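Teaching assistant here, posting this on the class forum so everyone can see the example we discussed in section. The complex has two components, and the goal was to see what a joint structure prediction looks like when all of them are supplied at once.
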Amino acid sequence: MASTSKNIPSTANPENVTDDIEPGACTDSILNPTDSFEEFASEMSSSLEERNTLAAKSSTISEIQSEIGESSKETLRETKSSDNLQSKDDSISGSASSSNLTEQNGEDTECERDEYLRSPELVNKEKHVFILSSAGKPIYSRYGNEDKLAGLCGVIQALVSVVEEQNQDILRSISTKDCKAIFLVKGPLILVAVSKSNESETQLVLQLTYAFNQIVSVLTLTQLNRIFEQRRNYDLRRLLSGAERLIDHLLIFMEKDPAFLLGAVRCLPLPEKARENITNAITSTCSKIRDLVFAILIAGNQLITLVRMKKYTLHPSDIHLLFNLVRSSESFKTAESWTPICLPKFDATGFLHGHVSYISEDCQACLLLLTVQRDAFFPLSQAKHTIAEKLRRSNCLVAINDALNRNKELPTTNPLKHIGIPEIRHFMYKCKSTAQLFTSDPISLDRLQDYRLRHKEGGDITEKKIEKLSDIDYVRNYRKFCSQIHCSSTPAKLIFRSNSENTVLAWVTNGFELYVTFDALMEKDHAIRAVDRLLHWIKKEEERIFIMHAPTF
Amino acid sequence: MIDIKNKVNSFFIFNSTFGPKEGDELKRILFYHPSQVTQDARKIQVGLCEAVVKFMTTFSTEPCEALQTQSKRYIFYQPEKDYWMVLVVRIPYATKAATTSNEKKEVIEPSVMQDFLMSAYKMFRMFIGPMKDIPTEDIYNNCEQFFTPYIMSRSIANDINNVIQGISYLPLEKNSFFRVVCFIDLLEINYPDFKCVSFVYNDKLIWNGLTTDDMLTLYQYLVQTLLPKQVEKEIQGGAVTAAQRHGRFISPPEGIRNADDLQKLHKVYLMREEDTETKQYYLVIYRTLSATVCFTVDVTTNLSIDTFRSLDAFIGPQLSTIASSISEQCALHALQSTQLSNTDHSFIYFNRLNLAYKTSAPSSSLTPSTAIKPEVLSIIAGIHSDRKSLGNYGEIIIKTPDEYWVTGKSSNDREFYVIIQEKNANLKDIADEVRRICEDQMKGIFFYPM
């Protein structure tokens, strides 16, 4: 047995383990562990009237500003004033908001639309995502050219409005045997996913919500609403140039990283001491900077540490957007950047200002310093250099690089080998109270690139015989289990499925969620023993795998 | 029957090619239930469905199956090209909100709704014929006359019999079975125009001469529509009891007493086991005691009342002897099985090849089973409709928050489900218990993995 913790009784009954062992659990969480599934439920039960007024809650940012005392009355003006939108926009005419379907798809447009949709750049894609304004104007399409999709967007808009106006209802989804179309109306936008993947409706709605949040993160909800209040017909693409790329990357990211599936954040496994040093370096340097809200160090889509202002926490989905921003922006690698960032869960109404930079040329960790102060670049830049220097001196950069390069010496690099349970092929574990996850095979940076390259070629559905499953394939396989576990009407606590290909155990308790893939036709008692050892190992390594403290400035 | 009024919002059939021009939208609607809905409301509903079907053709070659809105679920079925049947049920999209508000709303499985539409169509095709063969001027009437009573008489509640639609077979010891077969052979030799297509005892099937698909439809007609009415009549009417002993024709309902009655015989579209295509037949149904026998006669045959009288004289006494011997055997068997099954766990067995179905819950539609919780049923429906995930052989065990363990096993085309409520069990205990039940109940049927 790999288990060394003596206070935990070893037991062959998974049900009994629950009370004693919840690896990674701690009372003080750096993240807001609200379940994205609960949010989904509340969102989806909203009525038609409630939904149309996408009212933002009171601004957290102005709250912070007033607390700091220097609420310099300047409201967070957006970079682009909406006034100069007016002039540019007069040429755009023609409301696509005809509620009559038959009028909408007159014969001509319909033929064109169908032809374009059958063209090689659009046909046979596993998942389409379309974003349009509630007036039916195309804003984003994952594949193809939005301009040529105006006809399709008109039809989508007409469908949505017919259901709303004539049936006093909200359109949610349409499905055929092999394909689902999911509709989400958020404020002035309509988001649609058309998917042939095995993702459930809930999972797809969450992805659309992320895509919406990505737009909010660039514009803020206040500005988004105001633009469309002023001009219902506005072509939002002119404000979103650059954001398309972010959405593209986000969609790929969501398809492969289980962090989205579980609503959790992946942490970079580090020795407890190293993480403590890093955190101390940040707190000691930044404690004097009053209006700093968050200091976040990330590497390879993994969180290294997060130091926050007392009272305020970040939601995993905001962190995912930051991961996506950093990963998608090559420019951060070359220079220190100063950029406005709206974190929709934290405060959708305004921007935080972020100093974003990589720690050093020889370490791919990226430091984000988020403040409510719009002209704090220089103090933050100085803080960053001090932090980088401290990290180098305390050898933390080496520790980060070791973890990133998955040094073979580290127990977390190949946990299954380290524990010695060959019958387990793959696992993923989420600690619910801290919203953090750990998987047996963390997707490394270069693999991610690789996936992106492969994805660029395709996005097409291919029937290929898989010889060796990659971690992405395992995660795909878990989607169904995940959606059944979180099914709102018939949830499950435990699923054990065994067929000729593999055996999968999905198990949720008050403290954690665990998904394990075993060899095919696994005996139940063997599986129980293996899971038991796995949990003990995670418990033993929890200080390394997870962030167990929630430091503040 | 009360269920349907509460839950079915509407049921309609449309064909867009029937009124291609604007203004002709009403012609596209072949049938609409409930009838009190205004024409405008009908147009709106059908218009939406047409648009949705069209929208999905841009992305998929498969026909549209479902539309979900905040408050309703629409299930689509296209039995023949351009003919669409749609069932609309009130189902809140986020069911979590519904469950927290004390009143637990029962959610109807989409697969149950899909099966409901398929059964309705197959029944229509059996008694009226394929839709495309019906002249346009008749189809509105035909649909009205068939579907109105059909939909009023049926419930689509989540019941185990609706989740898995199968046929209960009656296992007989070999001598009794041979007597049934000999009786059928003798009859078909003496009356070559008559082919026996089914032999049913109570609500269990003993002999089948149809393709499995048609058998299920005929079986459902017998067990869900015809026989419950007969049984009711038999219980009420003292006068008929004497006649019962000798048997009688029960379709047409008044029996066959003179040549005029022959005109009332149902014509049905069926495919017999030896047929290569669906043909039209007269359907003759004869019943003695609890045994019901169905015959088909080619529609080209000249029917004479004398043949039917002589048939009655031939079948009556023989069938009543067979029926009583089966009844004795059933009583004996029932006694044995009560001794055997000391298990209080529910199980369901289903074989996709012959649709054989066996359950510990009462399988008759006359006594709906309340034994299985809706959540559990919905899990079983999920396993049943997702065949791929278990493959040719596999096993799944699911534990619900209220301590139900649902086990599903699949082995080629056979499926076996066990429901166990056990608070302090673990996977291994459940698997052992399932194995025990499987061995007890399904002697000789091989399940892998064990």
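For the discussion questions: Residues 89-249 of chain A form a domain with the Beta-Lactamase fold (CATH 3.30.450.70). Residues 1-19, 71-108 of chain A have pLDDT under 50 and may be disordered. Think about how each of these relates to the inputs above.
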